[in-house]
Structures are given as structure tokens and as C-alpha cells.
Amino acid sequence: MWKVVAVVVAACIVGVFGDKVQYKDCGSVSGTISDVDITPCPTEPCQFVRTKTINVTVDFTAKTAISTAVTKVYGFILGIKTPFPVPGDACQDMTCPIASGAVTSYKNSVFVKPEYPKVSVVVQWEVHDQDDKLIICFNVPVQISD
Ligand SMILES: *[C@@H]1O[C@H](CO)[C@@H](O)[C@H](O)[C@H]1NC(C)=O
User: Fold this and answer.
1) Domain of 39: which CATH number?
2) Is 39 in the pocket of ligand 1 (CB under 6 A)?
3) Per-residue model confidence as pLDDT tens digits over 42-91
4) 13 in a domain, yes or no?
């Protein structure tokens, strides 16, 4: 009985908050990441299914005042850092300006194009502040699949 309750509660939590994933911080300076959520990603490494849209939500605390911010996304394919095209203005994906100490949610999404190769890739997601310091930087391993 308690197992059933636990599963139902867990399912509700996942349903509401999405899929928190393991990530490696790759040098966040002007922010502190509390959670990285990738939906859908029921099992890790995350499967990025071609033709589907993946939602990315990052909760972080700003360590300095942030007026403008730029998103840069890269994929390490066979160790080579390759830029992944995403819209740059990160203030479209969170509310700017951000006061120092404010807890902020950054939300973005990526469309997994049908022509992407079915490779494993370490995604590096960076958001830079007005001084080009990293507000957030995280690595997540991903498998592109059908
Ligand atoms: C991703 O976010 C969009 C906009 O908030 C929402 O409509 C969509 O259902 C989300 N997709 C998933 C897989 O959670």
C-alpha cells in the first residue's frame, strides 16, 4: 500500500515539476544553480527524440545584479565543442533585470530537428551576463534518438 502511495506521489511530483536531471556545473560565476529540469527526460542520459521539443528549466540564484543576458549552447560531439543555434537574448527566457540575490527561473526549449545525427552529445548550456561572466553553465549528457 505504501509503495503504491509513494509511486503516486512521485508521479505527481514529476508531473508538476518535470524531470530534474543530474548535471555538472561548468563554471557558473554570477549565479548559483539549484536545479536543472529537462522535460521530457524520464531516464538519464536524456533521450532527445527527433521532431520533439525539449523544455529546459534552470532555477538559480543571482549573485550580482543582471541587466542583460545571452544564451550560448554547445554540443561536445567526439570531444569537439560545436555551437548549437539558439536565440541569444536570455531575457526572453527569464525576467530581466534581476536583482542580486533573487531566485530566478530560466525557461527555454529546443526543437530536435529530424536531420540531427543520432549521436551521444554532452550539451553545454551557458548564460552570460552583461559583463560576459557566466550566470549559469551546466553540462548534461544527451542521446539523440528516434
Ligand atoms: C514545454 O513548454 C511549453 C510552453 O510552456 C508547453 O506548452 C509544453 O507542453 C511543454 N512540453 C513538455 C514536453 O513539457
Assistant:
1) 2.60.40.770
2) yes
3) 999 999 999 999 999 999 999 999 999 999 999 998 889 999 989 999 99
4) no
- pLDDT by residue (tens digit) across 134-145? 999 999 999 999
Q: Which domain does 107 fall in, by range? A: 19-145
* 136: Cα separation from own chain's centroid: 10
Q: What is the mean pLDDT of the chain?
A: 90
CB 109 less than 6 A from any atom of ligand 1: yes
**From the alpha carbon of 18, which atom of ligand 1 is closest?**
14
User: Shortest CA distance to 57 belongs to which of 31, 36, 88, 28?
Assistant: 36
- Cα angle 77-80-85, degrees, rounded to a multiple of 5: 70
Beta bridge partners of 72: 126
